[in-house]
Amino acid sequence: MAILHFTNDILIYRKTSQTSSNTYSIFRGRKFTLLGGKETIKKLDHFVLTVKDIEKTTHFYTVILGMQKETFGEGRIALRFGERKINLHQAGHEFEPKAKHPLPGSADLCFITKEKIESVISHLQKHDVEIEEGPVKRTGAVGPIVSVYIRDPDYNLIELSNYLD
């Protein structure tokens, strides 16, 4: 279920069919096609992690996960990977606007790695990072993956994965 703003009414809708991904039934019985049947979201640009300690988080994501530290704005910190980035907010000192209830340790993230999972495991072991689970087979956004699970300094669950060939 989700909430949709539709002609000045807030409506609850649900998917009506397994075959049509954009057709929904409003609880009042009317049907509509979401956004004219077109996807409007192109890609993820960035997301925000609220953290207890920006330095520890930066160390983990740069040294362990290989991201690049980036400073922007008035001393704000981001962690860049490919065309995406993670903006960091210090818990209790978040930038506005922010999530309704920003909390360290509430994220569950999956990253696709360039290295094969065996190399990832070796790298994690070299840095004494505990593997909580894996390697295990899972389903990613575009197909089957093999994953290992670790925790960052705030205990966010981090899934490191490769697509299976």
Q: Specify Rg, calculated over alpha carbons.
A: 20 Å
Principal-axis shape equals globular
- Class by alpha and beta content: mainly beta
The tally of beta strands, per DSSP, is 12
- Relative helix content: 10-25%
State which percent range the strand residues make up.
35-45%
How many helix segments? Answer: 2
Strands side by side in the biggest sheet? 1-2-3-4
How would you sum up the major sheet?
A: 4 strands, antiparallel
Mean pLDDT across residues:
84
Distance between the amino and carboxyl termini = 34 Å
H-E string: EEEEEHEEEEHEEE
Show unreliable segments. 1-17, 23-33
Walk me through what this model shows.
- The structure is a single chain.
- The protein is mainly beta and 165 residues long.
- The protein has two helices and twelve strands, in the order E-E-E-E-E-H-E-E-E-E-H-E-E-E.
- It has helices spanning 54-64, 117-126; strands at residues 2-6, 9-15, 23-26, 31-33, 46-51, 68-72, 76-81, 84-90, 108-112, 133-139, 144-151, 157-163.
- It has a four-stranded antiparallel sheet, with no helix packed on it.
- Strand 1 (2-6) and strand 2 form a beta hairpin.
- The protein is globular and about 40 Å long.
Structural topology:
Blueprint: E1 2-6, E2 9-15, E3 23-26, E4 31-33, E5 46-51, H1 54-64, E6 68-72, E7 76-81, E8 84-90, E9 108-112, H2 117-126, E10 133-139, E11 144-151, E12 157-163
Parallel strand pairs: 5-8, 9-12
Antiparallel strand pairs: 1-2, 2-3, 3-4, 6-7, 7-8, 10-11, 11-12
